[in-house]
């Protein structure tokens, strides 16, 4: 649920040590914060502490423009990676799509009824097919054709559109092109993909066909941050559905669509709500 | 997982207000606590704050025998209900069973391989059937027959056995007798029952027969704390399984057994690990 | 998956007796049928035999206009209730909706991409809200306002629209009005509703609020044929989702939307594919 | 459910063609069979027809010792692979186990209460650990130590024990040794293994450790027939459970135990009930 009230959310990670919860709680208390949610995680193997804390800005006596200056000494002392986001500033999401529209329809509907607390300044596609649907939702639709030969130019054009629109993160809603390492590097942990299998099973092409050939009894879908290694980025969410010998490949594709929609939309939601921290090629999804 | 290390766990609830996390974190920091896990919950509707915090006793400078005296001023200031438990002191569980042995078998096996961090000083039954199984596990087995006429005497005998064995909580592993209000009052939030339906559907007798008659497509099981109102206590855990028109009542009973085992054992596990707080006839199960 | 080929589907039920499978298989063989799917069910308690058989019309030597005359003697001999449907004749579905659009969006999208093998000649609502969405999909949208006082007239108008459009069955996609017994009687087993709880738990009003108050650990949704008894008709499909103490009522409503969409669309799909037989206030959903 | 009545079950597969259902139904009708269940499957890609049919032997006028002679002409005509089994003749199962006892405990309990309609003439292990448990259940327990150097002798001894006991099929209940190709060849589709991952993900060693390292959000278990290719045999059943970043490897192992028990016991049950047909390295599990 989107908080009605204005709130701030701090995401941080640092080497594990005593007193971290108290240090952050005290800092916030000094300025009269009302903590709405707090969740933390220790990874003993990596000796890492990770935390998410959200507090009400109503009554918070530290102006947010001074937050960084006030907090940095504590962050330095504990060697924290951190960022803070404000509920009043919606993140700006771009959607990339090709021809399959089910994930796009799903995301746009969730956005329209307020499930996703982000702005969608544009949708980019390598095909015309989804224009009518996108424009019905009042969102600008840009076609950037991609061929074998124009990949670099196409990405340059995509990047220009993203920059111009002030995009924070990109969602690949069954976008059937592989992004270059260069593109991915510009958006670290900020490109979310949906892969139509239960990773690491059936990474790469035609996962439903291969699932059918292998005779699995469940199919899956996986949302993950895109890294330079195809289908190997940090997993955000996964889900499966039961199939049987009666289900031909077409039935897997159809049942899979429902998985893809749910798994991608959860990842987008959690990312928008600043619930996801990535480390060691894994994610923590805070409650 | 049972912590290898010695730890203490504080469970508390109080009216919600600013500064609670900081107050507790600071108290623990004063004595050099290493917090292992912390989880909190606010119920806005009830204006209630609930928290579970577990810390390592290695290096903790406050002797646990002095904990209450040291903590009580903070508890008083914030009107906390609280209790603290030590991993070094295993809770003592009694199991009540009748003739169906599947939940008993499951609990005893989990206990034997270390999944349940409790002692089991005795099993009580109104029938002889499970004696061999219980004694195979090295646990004393007591038969207390229950008839229409001897209910009060039977409960007196059960209570005597529980007292003598220093029992902390009771698990009804498909025990087919209803406990008296008097008995239940003696163990508030300390009697766990498994009901073989997805409550509140099909409370009372013969839930699988009624589920079959209604034509539901999923069956369920529910573990809950026993209160004086039959099948209406705070729910700890629920799970469901898919059925079809092919499943006659016998098949529901059989599929239900697997649900009952899993749902009861999770409740016992969470109770043993001090993860469950009950309020307003609901439970919070802390992570 | 819609069969590409033209096929016929027979749904039948009759008192159980020997030789039913052979009788039907032989009848179809006489006319050189290629059976694509066959599934049967015996309800021993009710002494009932139910069967669904689908065969390819390519090479079938009995013209379908003569089917009834040819088959009736066998049906009479075994006292069968039966009907046959042709894949070439798509059933005509009307959707009733109020203001919540999630089920409507979902059904329209599935229909657009070919998941639902039906026609949708019209959508009827008691509010204007969904007009733009429906018309975007090229479907006529009719507003029939319903007040306390005009219920009979409103239903008369709805019925006129349905008759005029040659509607076979009606889907209530979160339509917030109770249909009269008279209306329901006109469409026996041909009005499909989605109820936002795991029936029989929380039938009637505000199920998510009541689920929250009861502290259940799973929420559900149920699709069923509408009968004169509110929320008591034959259940077609149910599904549940896990919730926790963190989920306020708003979160239940939101998670519930995903259940409602899936559970309603499955029921519609199975109904369209002639997979559902209703008896004794239950359903058989054939594979 | 085990049928109380005496029944026979025919499992068959053959090239798909018209009239197969009628041919079998007529054959059975000729001898006055009362068909209890029938289920069939067509694999269009492989042009294969597979069927399972179970009929009541009460009133069946063909003595079962004459079945093969009577049925073979039909089988020849349609080039059927087929076998028939009698409910009065329980299949004989051997269990192989090492030290982990959870699957063994589960199978033995299900067997004791009648869920599994088989005999268990013996349990074989490479360790002494499970002796007491097995003998508590009244089953002979044989230790056949396996070392690097004695593998061939050990298998010879195992094979001798299996032959002597008239074993029909073998269940590897977390047996930590790889069987030789020679051993496997002797029991085609008659050795059932449980692998503790969602195959094909994490085949081979230490799947829980690798699942943890990859950061998956669900773990799984897979039961399959053993072939000469490790973890690549026909999959019978799979199931998954949700995990989170809070679950260390130990927690995965623990949650996995519940999956392994359920997934293995379903496979054993279906095999015992003659529900599983294997083809093209896949299985059909008939309803």
TrEMBL record, chains A, B, C, D:
Alphabetized GO MF terms: formyltetrahydrofolate deformylase activity
Superkingdom of the source species: Bacteria
InterPro entries noted in UniProt: ACT-like_dom_sf, ACT_dom, Formyl-FH4-Hydrolase_C, Formyl_transf_N, Formyl_transf_N_sf, PurU, PurU_ACT
Keywords, alphabetical: Hydrolase, One-carbon metabolism, Purine biosynthesis
Protein's job: Catalyzes the hydrolysis of 10-formyltetrahydrofolate (formyl-FH4) to formate and tetrahydrofolate (FH4).
Metabolic or biological pathway: Purine metabolism; IMP biosynthesis via de novo pathway; formate from 10-formyl-5,6,7,8-tetrahydrofolate: step 1/1
EC number in record: 3.5.1.10
UniProt record similarity statement: Belongs to the PurU family.
Catalyses which reaction(s): (6R)-10-formyltetrahydrofolate + H2O = (6S)-5,6,7,8-tetrahydrofolate + formate + H(+)
Species: Microvirgula aerodenitrificans
CDD domains registered for this protein in UniProt: ACT_F4HF-DF, FMT_core_Formyl-FH4-Hydrolase_C
Protein name in UniProt: Formyltetrahydrofolate deformylase
PROSITE patterns attached to this UniProt entry: ACT
ACT domain mapped to chain residues: 9-89
UniProt-annotated catalytic positions: 231
NCBIfam families per UniProt: PRK06027.1, PurU
GO process terms (BP): 'de novo' IMP biosynthetic process; one-carbon metabolic process
């Amino acid at each position: 649920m989107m908080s009605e009230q204005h709130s701030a959310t701090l995401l941080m990670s640092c080497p594990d040590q005593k007193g971290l919860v108290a240090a952050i709680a005290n800092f916030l208390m000094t300025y009269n914060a009302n903590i709405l949610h707090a969740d933390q995680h220790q990874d003993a193997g990596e000796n890492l502490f990770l935390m998410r804390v959200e507090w009400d800005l109503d009554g918070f006596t530290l102006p947010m423009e001074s937050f960084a200056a006030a907090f940095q000494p504590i962050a330095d002392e504990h060697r924290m990676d951190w960022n803070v986001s404000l509920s009043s500033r919606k993140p700006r999401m771009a959607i990339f799509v090709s021809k399959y529209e089910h994930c796009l329809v799903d995301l746009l509907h969730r956005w329209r009824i307020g499930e996703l607390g982000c702005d969608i300044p544009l949708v980019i596609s390598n095909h015309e097919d989804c224009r009518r649907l996108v424009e019905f939702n009042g969102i600008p639709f840009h076609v950037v054709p991609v061929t074998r030969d124009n990949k670099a130019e196409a990405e340059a054009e995509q990047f220009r559109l993203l920059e111009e629109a002030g995009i924070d993160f990109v969602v690949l809603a069954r976008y059937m092109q592989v992004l270059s390492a260069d593109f991915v590097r510009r958006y670290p942990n900020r490109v979310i993909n949906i892969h139509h299998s239960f990773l690491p099973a059936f990474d790469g092409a035609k996962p439903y066909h291969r699932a059918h050939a292998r005779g699995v009894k469940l199919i899956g879908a996986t949302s993950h941050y895109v890294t330079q290694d195809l289908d190997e980025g940090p997993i955000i969410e996964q889900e499966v559905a039961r199939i049987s010998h009666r289900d031909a490949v077409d039935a897997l594709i159809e049942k899979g669509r429902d998985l893809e929609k749910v798994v991608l939309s959860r990842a987008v939601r959690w990312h928008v709500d600043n619930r996801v921290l990535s480390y060691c090629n894994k994610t923590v999804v805070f409650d």
